[in-house]
């Protein structure tokens, strides 16, 4: 870190670096008990079909730290992956998300799909698929009510077992989505190799579609490419009406972003979720 910031000078290790390292150590140590102390929670961000029908939600993890306040999953999920804690935490996430899927369905939202982010570390646990299928049964959630969001990073250390596990899940009816599409490299290869139903176009592509010709062409062409492969496509991070209008014009199947709905707390989930205009 110090090297990257200040060349080879040893003295470049600044107070800011020390603070950052300190925070990291603190978080790493305290994450262990966070589940038991009920500091973790889920928010649910709505995902709509282009017709305006509510298609489901993406479950997003939050850590409400007693002193530091809200810690972003972008900060603590990597720590949880390094320590292996993502395995019990991820299991808790899936359980909670399934419970919410059932509750929401019971309230009359039929065919709700609950999307859960999956770490590559979870998928490498040999008993993951069996555990997952058992859990769905226990929770009374049909496999088609769950979508697992994976990223290209799953392929970095993936062997055949990773693909085989995804295949088994898919055969059982669990949906698989490729998240953050376009931010990695060799993306098109993965489209061929991974057993997926859904592709999520990363927000960094959606953001500039109203101003940048290149992004406009990329997103419009990606949507038709994905359709021709028989998959469905989600646009992430829609923040304004112009983006929404373009994505609808291009036939994007599913829509997600602050414009349509921010991630909501569990207790806010009883309120009537409005249809898209
Ligand atoms: P992601 O899966 O790509 O999730 C989308 C992120 O974009 C979420 O951030 C969401 O709040 C944010 N977002 C949604 N709509 C908009 C928008 O219109 N504008 C902007 N600027 N942002 C938007 P969040 O909740 O902070 O999560 C960050 C990342 O942390 C997620 O990215 C995912 O990779 C990871 N993550 C979250 N929950 C979990 C989890 O339960 N397990 C694992 N393994 N990773 C998780
Ligand atoms: Mg996601
Ligand atoms: Mg994403
Ligand atoms: Mg993203």
UniProtKB/TrEMBL annotation:
It comes from the Bacteria. Coiled coil: none annotated. GO terms for molecular function: cyclic-guanylate-specific phosphodiesterase activity. Residues 24-277 form the EAL domain. This is Diguanylate cyclase (GGDEF)-like protein. It comes from Paenibacillus methanolicus. The lineage of its organism: Bacteria, Bacillati, Bacillota, Bacilli, Bacillales.
């Amino acid at each position: 870190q110090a090297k990257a910031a200040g060349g080879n000078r040893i003295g470049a290790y600044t107070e800011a670096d020390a603070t950052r390292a300190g925070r990291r150590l603190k978080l790493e140590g305290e994450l262990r008990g966070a589940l038991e102390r009920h500091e973790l929670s889920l928010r649910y961000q709505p995902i709509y079909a282009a017709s305006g029908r509510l298609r489901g939600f993406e479950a997003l993890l939050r850590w409400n730290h007693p002193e530091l306040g809200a810690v972003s999953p972008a900060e603590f999920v990597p720590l949880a992956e390094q320590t292996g804690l993502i395995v019990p935490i991820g299991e808790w996430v899936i359980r909670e998300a399934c419970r919410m899927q059932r509750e929401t369905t019971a309230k009359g939202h039929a065919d709700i799909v609950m999307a859960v982010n999956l770490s590559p570390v979870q998928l490498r646990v040999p008993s993951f698929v069996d555990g997952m299928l058992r859990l769905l049964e226990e929770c009374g959630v049909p496999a088609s009510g769950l979508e697992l969001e994976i990223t290209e990073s799953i392929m970095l250390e993936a062997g055949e077992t990773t693909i085989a596990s995804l295949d088994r899940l898919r055969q059982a009816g669990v949906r698989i989505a490729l998240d953050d599409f376009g931010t990695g490299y060799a993306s098109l290869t993965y489209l061929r190799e991974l057993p997926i139903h859904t592709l999520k176009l990363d927000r960094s592509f959606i953001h500039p579609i109203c101003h940048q010709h290149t992004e406009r062409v990329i997103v419009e062409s990606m949507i038709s490419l994905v359709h021709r492969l028989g998959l469905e496509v989600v646009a992430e991070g829609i923040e304004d009406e112009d983006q929404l209008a373009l994505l609808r014009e291009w036939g994007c199947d599913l829509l997600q972003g602050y414009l349509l709905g921010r991630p909501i707390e569990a207790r806010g989930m009883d309120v009537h979720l409005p249809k898209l205009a």
